[in-house]
């Protein structure tokens, strides 16, 4: 009679086979499963962790400013000699406020920033005196380029009457956030908006005057939340209620890219990601530079593309950013979005702007100190280190009928450069390494599990066949003829 296989063995074998198939499927689809789960976690919703971390960042933020002191201002128009002073370091508190989730899958908000001077991190005091270009007079002369003879002469008389000079000497505090009084500002209040470039009337001048403790630094932002199918979080949709950039024409007017605090996922060495920068009023490109490792976590480094500073010499697509005749390569003309002030942005010390460095003394570019870059965990799209650096320069040129500017060289005058460097906290870095390990080893674990359950199925199958095999062997042994010795002992 044949042995009967226990029912539990069939159940065990079937369960193991099912688990083997599931584990194998998990191994083959692990990357897609992980991407789906990660995408759901990165969506911006009122209760998501990514949203809570974004609303009020816990990582320490510092805003460092380096001023250029003009050491031979009394000898102008001789070649300016500049000396870098700083950093003047400010601790930044950043909170996103007025957050509204919209039905179209977007989120609108404003950013509230507050800066506090940090004397310990600074290499200088806010009472230090700095000599720099007269920003008020230079802006007036820049706007006067297109004026008629009588208007230009009127400005020339006004500059003399108010005893304006080409340079000013003020404290660092006055040049930055505190501001200082200038009689030309009082005069500007009585002039039509067309004369002042539409700039709102102010009572003081300072490069950051009126920007501290306000909601106006970045303006109104509207970005995607990633909740709608086919969208990713953090892509710019509207800025200051516009879906395009009114300062430029053609392709340059398109509002594209991430909002700066968000980076695309699944980046490769061939990837170029775009980012919208409110202070530049435009989108810029980030190019792959190199790969590295920090605390055991691999990253890709992307730096601000030199194409973003091209004056259309290399790429004709940049012509629409020129706002008139293109200037030097190595700078961005942002005057159109700065009330027609002569503001041009470059990398610090005119990095990658060889021609510009010949116009002044005191520029010592170093990519390690002056480049703008993101170090990003490429699969997750999470920055592990960011160094945002820009330099503000003022464009000056001769204006025939304005005596103070009738004999000045055409040049860009460096004013200051800023740096905001952020490094991921060790605690977050460890969490990121754990998440990355799940991605890297998840498929391997699933494959091993599939192999393990497949072995269990094989064992169960052999076990199920074992009773029948033994029974066959026993029956066969009984049918064999008895040996001679046994026959002699047991004669019939």
Question: If you had to describe this structure to a student in words, what would you say it looks like?
Answer:
The chain has 492 residues and is α+β, with helices and mostly antiparallel strands. The protein has two domains: 7-37 and 438-481; 59-424, no CATH class. Helix content is 30%, strand content 26%. The chain has eleven helices and 15 strands. The chain has helices spanning 7-42, 49-55, 135-143, 149-161, 172-178, 183-188, 193-196, 354-357, 367-370, 426-479, 484-489, and strands at residues 61-70, 82-101, 106-117, 129-133, 167-171, 221-224, 236-239, 272-277, 282-294, 297-304, 331-333, 343-346, 373-377, 382-396, 411-423. The strands form two sheets. Strands 1, 2, 3, 6, 7, 8, 9, 10, 11, 12, 13, 14 and 15 form a 13-stranded antiparallel beta sheet that branches. It has a two-stranded antiparallel ribbon with strand order 4-5. Strand 13 and strand 14 form a beta hairpin. Helix 1 (7-42) packs antiparallel against helix 10. The longest helix has 54 residues, at 426-479. The model has no long low-confidence stretch (mean pLDDT 83).
């Amino acid at each position: 009679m044949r042995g009967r296989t226990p029912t539990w063995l069939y159940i065990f074998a079937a369960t193991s086979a099912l688990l083997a198939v599931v584990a194998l499927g998990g191994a083959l689809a692990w990357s897609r499963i992980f991407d789906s789960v990660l995408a759901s976690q990165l969506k911006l919703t009122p209760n998501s962790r990514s949203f809570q971390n974004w609303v009020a960042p816990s990582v320490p933020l510092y805003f460092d400013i380096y001023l250029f002191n003009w050491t031979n201002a009394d000898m102008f128009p001789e070649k300016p000699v500049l000396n870098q002073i700083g950093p003047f370091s400010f601790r930044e508190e950043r909170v996103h406020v007025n957050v509204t989730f919209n039905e179209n899958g977007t989120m609108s908000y404003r950013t509230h920033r507050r800066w506090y001077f940090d004397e310990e991190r600074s290499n200088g005091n806010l009472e230090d005196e700095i000599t720099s270009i007269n920003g008020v007079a230079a802006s007036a002369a820049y706007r006067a380029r297109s004026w008629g003879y009588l208007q230009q002469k009127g400005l020339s008389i006004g500059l003399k009457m108010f005893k304006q000079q080409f340079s000013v000497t003020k404290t660092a505090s006055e040049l930055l956030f505190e501001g200082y009084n200038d009689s030309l500002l009082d005069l500007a209040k009585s002039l039509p908006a067309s004369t002042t470039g539409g700039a709102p009337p102010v009572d003081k001048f300072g490069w950051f005057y009126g920007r501290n403790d306000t909601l106006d630094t970045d303006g109104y932002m509207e970005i995607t939340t990633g909740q709608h199918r086919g969208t990713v979080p953090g892509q710019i949709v509207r800025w200051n209620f516009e879906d395009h950039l009114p300062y430029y024409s053609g392709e340059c007017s398109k509002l594209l890219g991430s909002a700066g605090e968000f980076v695309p996922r699944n980046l490769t060495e061939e990837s170029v990601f775009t980012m919208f920068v409110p202070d530049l009023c435009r989108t810029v490109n980030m190019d792959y530079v190199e790969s590295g490792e920090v605390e055991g976590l691999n990253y890709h480094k992307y730096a601000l593309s030199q194409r973003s500073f091209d004056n259309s010499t290399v790429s004709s697509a940049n012509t629409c950013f020129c706002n008139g005749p293109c200037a030097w390569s190595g700078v961005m003309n942002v005057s159109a979005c700065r009330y027609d002030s002569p503001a041009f942005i470059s990398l610090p010390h005119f990095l990658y702007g060889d021609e510009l460095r010949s116009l002044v003394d005191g520029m010592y570019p170093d990519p390690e100190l002056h480049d703008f870059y993101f170090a990003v965990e490429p699969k997750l799209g999470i920055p592990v280190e960011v160094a945002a650096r820009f330099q503000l320069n003022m464009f000056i040129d001769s204006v025939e009928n304005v005596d103070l500017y009738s004999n000045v060289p055409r040049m860009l005058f460096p004013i200051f450069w800023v740096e905001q460097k952020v490094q991921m906290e060790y605690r977050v870095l460890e969490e990121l390494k754990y998440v990355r390990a799940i991605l890297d080893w998840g498929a391997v674990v699933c494959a091993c599990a599939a192999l393990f359950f497949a072995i269990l199925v094989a064992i169960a199958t052999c076990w199920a066949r074992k009773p029948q095999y033994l029974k066959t062997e026993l029956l066969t042994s009984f049918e064999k003829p008895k040996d001679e010795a046994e026959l002699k002992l047991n004669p019939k």
